[in-house]
Amino acid sequence: MIPSLEDVSRITVLRIYGRPVSGYTYPCYHGLAERLLDLPVEHRSSLVPRVALQESLGLYDAGKNAGESEDEYLERLARVSRRELASEPGPQADLDLRRFLVLFLGRLLFATRGDAVHCRFLPLLEDLGEVGGYAWGAAFLAHQYNGLSASERQTSTSGFYPFLQFWAYLHLPALGRGDLARPGLVPIERRWDSRRDTRHLVDQLERLQEAIDSHPYLDVIWQPYLGEGSEGQPWLVQARPYFGRSVWLHALNLVLPLNLFLTQHSLGLRQSAVEFPVRDRFTRPGRSFRGLHDTTDWRERAREQIENWERKGNAVKSDATTDDAYLQAYALKYGGMVYKSTRHQVDVAGEIASLRALLHSVMQDRETAQRQAAELRSELEKVRSTGAGGASSSRDAGGSPSLLEARLAGAVLRAEEAQRHLEERERDLRLTTEHAMDLQAQRDQYQG
Fold first, then answer.
1. Which of 65, 275, 333, 345 falls 20 to 30 Å from 101 in CA-CA distance?
2. Tens of pLDDT along 166-219?
3. What string of DSSP letters covers 171-227?
């Protein structure tokens, strides 16, 4: 299970369709920044000082005050903006808009470590009429993936972390949620108010790691949007063709694959055996934007991947009826190397004990359902036989089934359906338990 384009669209409303965020990257944005932003940029630099950028928008001293509500804060920001920014269309209004977009993109959606703001998206902002046509949401997801794959030795993070917070609220509720202050509101990110944690950051991280390590498998919500409609969300009409597809994501020199075929279960499918992808199949000159020392046109450099985006990638399909083949392939590839974190090894014995307890419970439920279905079938046969002999009013004058017979027939169908469901659940748990035992044997062999 991984964040997807549907998650981005439903949680943030960012546009995930349209032109890929691709174009030129330069070793230095000094001249471009001075021309389009009219702000001082050091020679041979690509960074705009954050303070100068905020001051140009009247936002430097506009931080949230203690005790100020979100609505009050936004209202005050609006007053400041109306006072500081151009009110009529023209060159000054275009200048203000570009400055705001550079700040918004560089410090919020595509935030990087450090205080200065990078100008890498500035070439795409030269023609303001084209800005709205880019798939910024897909670029945002690529940036999130790039931040998540960073070295664990780093002590800070980049990217827009509230997105992952709300994603966890939806998919991993056992980790804890904020206060659901506005249920049903769209976009989804507006439904919760975050709870302030006053504990030391180290304590927070340790508790979060423990919660992730021990998160119950059965508490995972694989498809959180099944009950979500599309009313009041017109953007979903154009976004929906990109849901459930493996596709290449573009954010200038970040060209990353969205491998949804690895998470077929989150699409309501059985997970088929797949070839586990090799990381960084698409070679690019480093992760750091400042690591690009040559002018590069990524529309040419990543032409094949852009064509893939324009075709909307590939639909994820699965003909598998069980997860067996996938679990076997996974155990063979990672069997001796499965860890929940750098501190805690997976308690395979504990997992097996839990699976056996679940299996025993399901077996009891299945036996109960089997008895109930047999009793209902017997009762239905009695009603039908007495009705056929004319000794009962189980059939009316027109020969149609009586109300009692119809109700019994419906109850039998529901009991048989419940029995089939429990039989399938029992079979899956048996297979999962066997795979876990095989995994334990392989790990013991690996370790000993």
1. 65
2. 998 898 887 877 888 888 888 888 888 877 778 887 888 788 877 777 777 777
3. H-GGG---EE-STT-SSGGGSEEPPPP-S-HHHHHHHHHHHHHT--GGG--S-TTTT
Q: d(Cα 316, Cα 169) in Å, to the nearest integer?
A: 25
Q: What long-range pairs does 154-163 form, CB within 8 A, spacing at least 24?
A: 154/113, 156/113, 157/113, 158/111, 158/112, 158/113, 159/110, 159/111, 160/108, 160/109, 160/111, 162/189, 162/194, 163/3, 163/7, 163/8, 163/11, 163/12, 163/189
The 10s digit of each residue's pLDDT in 102-116 is: 988 988 888 877 777
CA–CA distance, 322 with 435 (Å, rounded to integer): 13
pLDDT tens-digit profile of 27-63? Answer: 888 888 889 998 877 777 778 888 888 888 888 877 7
- Sequence ranges of the domains in the chain: 1-17+153-320, 348-447
Residue 45 backbone dihedrals phi, psi, to 5 degrees: -115, 160
pLDDT of residue 324: 72
Top mean-pLDDT range of 235-249, 278-292, 430-444 = 235-249
User: Would you state the structure tokens that stand for residue 95, as one six-digit string?
Assistant: 């200048």
Name the CA dihedral angle for 315, 147, 285, 275, rounded to a multiple of 10 degrees.
Answer: -40
